[in-house]
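Reading a protein record of the kind used here takes only a little practice. These numbers are not coordinates but entries in a learned vocabulary of local backbone shapes. Here is one such record, which you should read through line by line.
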Amino acid sequence: MQIISYVYQFLWGDLIYLPLPGGQRAGLSLLVLILIPAGLYFTLRTGFLPIRLFPEMLKVTAEKRSKTDQHAISGLQALIVSTATRVGMGNLVGVVAAISAGGAGAVFWMWLTALIGSSTAFAEATLAQLHKEKDPLYGGYRGGPAYYIHDFVQTRKPSKRGRSLIAVLFAISGLICWCGISQVISNSVSSSFYNAFRIPPLYTTIVLVILAAIIVLRKHATVKVLDILVPIMAGCYFVITLFIILKNAPALPSVFRQIFAEAFGLRQAVAGGFGAVLMNGVKRGLFSNEAGSGSAPCAAAAAETDHAARSGLLQAFGVFIDTIVICSCTAMIMLLAPGNLLEHLNGMELLQTAMEYHMGRFGTVFIAATLWLFSFSTFIGILFYARSNVAYLFGDNWLSQTLYKVLALMMLFIGGLAAYTFVWDLGDIGIGLMTIFNMIILIPQSREALDALKEYEQRFMQKKPRQRKRP
């Protein structure tokens, strides 16, 4: 437990402090020190891709392309799978925590972090496409950081063992992370259902585990379920939030003034809280959209597409959906409610109280149902990710694939009943280690992704010169 606590603090705790005007300082964790500079690097190297190519992202998302392999997934389906895992508890509980600790200004830094993270998401997803393999068990394709890390290391220092150490460490970190997340998911769902309906956690957990088992233990059910579930859950949450925004339209100017004023510490400067505003927004933005962690590339690699950069653009758009759209929805629900109503509240209770103010009893029920959908889709999505990591570590066999699914289902059951276990910290450590191992290789290998972007723009986006009409 002491070792786990030490590693957790090393990854997520404040490693160094950045001095700020007025004698303030902002604590920077190791992962922030890695991801923010990397995001800025990729943003510059791609020519501010999130802004410059945003219309192209929309175009690629709307395109329908035929598949040659019936078991492969489309680029849009890969986006849906990655959105299922990105859009989870962080969009609800995480945003509430960020605003509670850092105020409304944290929302601005979440937005800015998402713009930076989009370029990182593009780079890792494009590399995953370039280094994908045929999947002999499930059909279609597989890949992710473990595979492009392996290829990068093998080209420089070939190993007779068939695996590279960094790729193995990444794959193990991913499996640890996703087991930990399984516990957090079920605990949050059982707690919210108890608060909303007074249903005992045991009953909620049993139903959750049975439904999850029916889906994940079937060979090709995951993507089919997420194809239906993700658009419905994200769409309903967006529509309800849009209704709340329109209902409170006169208050919007003051909300945006509050966000931008507090973003730069105009109010917090006196109280010495600018560092909290900045870092809560940055951390929530980074770990909500997961850009750089190496999770989403596991879905990006499974897509069948005619150009690797298309998959990268889709995953960059996924960051926009997660943070700019869904996280902003949660922020608006909170900021449009009276401040005195939410005083001394935190977590799901805070969000459910804000929603009850806007929508009455329906609001409390809606948040519980939304958390259930967000969390359930996250669990299904992370087991889709786990396929490629399990295969890299243990080879292509159904035994290892099934055993990991059973282990994740056990963690799902335990988490629904336990108030806290050390496996939760292991989940956070897992995603932190994934990020480090991924970023070690992503930056030196990114030339391939940048070349793919350049080739894509020349091939698909160059405007043909107009031919002058003859007189």
Residues 268-272, 464-469 have pLDDT under 50 and may be disordered. Residues 56 and 461 are 9 Å apart (CA to CA). Strands lie at 14-19, 25-29, 133-134, 141-142. The longest helix spans residues 361-394.
